[in-house]
Design goal:
Length: 269
């Protein structure tokens, strides 16, 4: 039987794989019997040329039929792209993620280099080691972080290191998308800590998020864009920030009754 060809976000085509869907659903804890049902339902709706974005929407719609407390986790990749439009919420998200992983953090810090001043997105400290982090946010599916991005980071790091030799442990580049092979190669050569989607394989951004249970509020499809922006302004970035608010503060958020009801059904720990 001829395999169905699907269209990726970058315009390339590839054969549809049941195994990839099964792995992604298994990763977020969907029971095996429900995965089997979803795959049967999904297969009946596929056609040649269907986009990966449309497949995602179909799967998310099917997941919602089963009222699973962790289903919001399936929307992580597009949710990260919705941490905008400025990219500032993405920086706050990375800082909060690292706090849950044992770091102390600061955001938007100005440091003097030998030649010029630099605004550092996140400073993260753990075990007395100070890490300087550049956050590269993209909001278009299929976009990758390229070698020019890491060259920019390296140039800034060198300028700061020359001003304060030995003070800073390592420079990181954290991005919500994949990185090109050249970007990966350069980071390895220069000892830059690159954290991207699915890179490194043992601890990419999605793995760190799962380990910390630090999911952004943009995973919650029942929140309206205006509600999300209001929460961003209050620096409520993580779902756990939202559900753990004291009752009085939560009541003052002005969320819809539907959003309040849906929040009671989800699981974050």
């Amino acid at each position: 039987m001829k395999s169905i060809q699907i269209k990726k976000a970058n315009g390339e085509t590839q054969a549809f794989s049941n195994n990839k869907i099964r792995e992604s659903l298994n990763r977020i804890g969907v029971p095996h019997n429900i995965i089997d049902k979803i795959l049967v339902q999904l297969t009946g709706q596929l056609r040649d040329g269907i986009s990966t974005r449309e497949i995602y929407r179909l799967i998310f719609s099917l997941l919602n039929q089963y009222d699973l407390p962790d289903s919001y986790r399936y929307s992580l990749k597009p949710a990260l792209m919705n941490l905008g439009p400025s990219g500032y919420p993405f920086e706050k998200f990375i800082a909060k993620l690292l706090i849950r992983l044992g770091y102390t953090t600061q955001t938007q810090v100005i440091l003097k280099g030998k030649c010029i001043e630099h605004e550092i997105d996140v400073i993260a400290v753990k075990n007395n080691l100070v890490n300087l982090i550049e956050c590269k946010y993209h909001n278009h599916p299929g976009t990758k972080s390229h070698s020019k991005d890491v060259l920019y980071v390296q140039a800034r790091f060198e300028d700061i290191q020359e001003a304060f030799p030995g003070k800073y442990h390592r420079f990181w580049l954290v991005t919500n998308t994949r990185a090109t092979q050249k970007a990966i190669q350069y980071c390895r050569c220069r000892n830059l800590n690159l954290i991207a989607w699915r890179y490194p394989k043992s601890g990419g951004l999605e793995v760190m998020i799962d380990q910390a249970r630090a999911y952004p509020i943009t995973c919650l499809s029942f929140l309206s864009p205006s509600e999300i922006q209001r929460l961003f302004e209050l620096e409520i970035i993580l779902i756990s920030d939202l559900v753990n608010l004291p009752e009085k503060q939560f009541s003052n958020l002005g969320l819809s009754s539907q959003a309040k009801n849906n929040l009671q059904k989800i699981r974050v720990s």
